[in-house]
Structures are given as structure tokens and as C-alpha cells.
Amino acid sequence: MVKIKGVKVYPSELKTVLLGLEGATGAYRLVVGTKTHGGDHLTLQVEGTVQGGAIEAIAERFKRQTLIHADAIETVAKLEGAALAEDQRRETT
Predict the structure, then answer these.
(1) CA within 20 to 30 Å of 13's CA: 7, 24, 51, 57, which one?
(2) Which residues pair with 79 in a beta bridge?
(3) 51, 53, 85 from 32: Cα distances, Å
(4) Residue 91 has what pLDDT?
(5) How far is residue 16's CA from residue 41's CA, in Å, rounded to a whole number?
(6) Which of 2, 66, 4, 65 is nearest to 34 (CA)?
(7) Given this model, what pLDDT does residue 53 score?
(8) How many domains does the chain have?
(9) What does DSSP say about strands 24-34 and 85-87: parallel, antiparallel, or unpaired?
(10) Domain of 73, in residue numbers
């Protein structure tokens, strides 16, 4: 579980967001960072070749499932590692 924008999100529950979408492999990752002026920045990474209207469908499904919106949705050819969530807010540089 990760708390994003004040909402508890269970990454394992998000599989339904990608069901039936052409080009999506079903693999995904939530990446949580911090905006420049504070607050959480949420990126949803989706594995596959999802494009166009499917991105909008993912955004709508994600918002319906979690009650928050993703600041960005990225498609990647291959997600490395097994983590469903990556919390960069706690990382030090």
C-alpha cells in the first residue's frame, strides 16, 4: 500500500485497469515522486504498446478505481524488476 495525494492505493488492485486493452501486457508500476512546489506526483507506467484512446481509457479507469488521477501515463517496452510501486519521495540524492 502506498499513500498518494492523501489516498491509500493498493497497487495489486490495479490489474483491472488494464484488462482488455489492446497492446497492454498487463504489467504496470506506480511511480510516486514530489512536485517541484510540493505535493505528490504520480506516474503510471504501463508495459506494452498502448496508444491514443487507450491511454485515455487507462486514465479514466485509474481515476474510477483509485479516486485520484495520474499526473502522467507512460508506456514502456519492458518494465524491469517486480515492484508494483516505486516511492521516490523517500529517496535521497
Answers:
(1) 51
(2) none
(3) 22, 24, 8
(4) 65
(5) 22
(6) 4
(7) 86
(8) 1
(9) parallel
(10) 2-90
Q: What is the pLDDT of residues 27-67, one digit of tens each?
A: 999 999 999 988 999 999 999 998 778 999 999 999 999 99
What is the pTM for the complete model shown?
0.88
d(CA 53, CA 39): 28
* Tally of CB atoms within 10 A around 50: 20
Q: What is the CATH number of the domain that holds 65?
A: 3.30.300.30
Q: Is the pLDDT of residue 78 over 60?
A: yes
80: exposed, middle or buried (C-beta count within 10 Å: 0-12, 13-18, 19+)? exposed
Cα–Cα distance, 52 to 36 (Å, whole number):
28
89: cell is 519521495
Q: Residue 52 contacts by C-beta under 8 Å, 6 or more apart in sequence? A: none
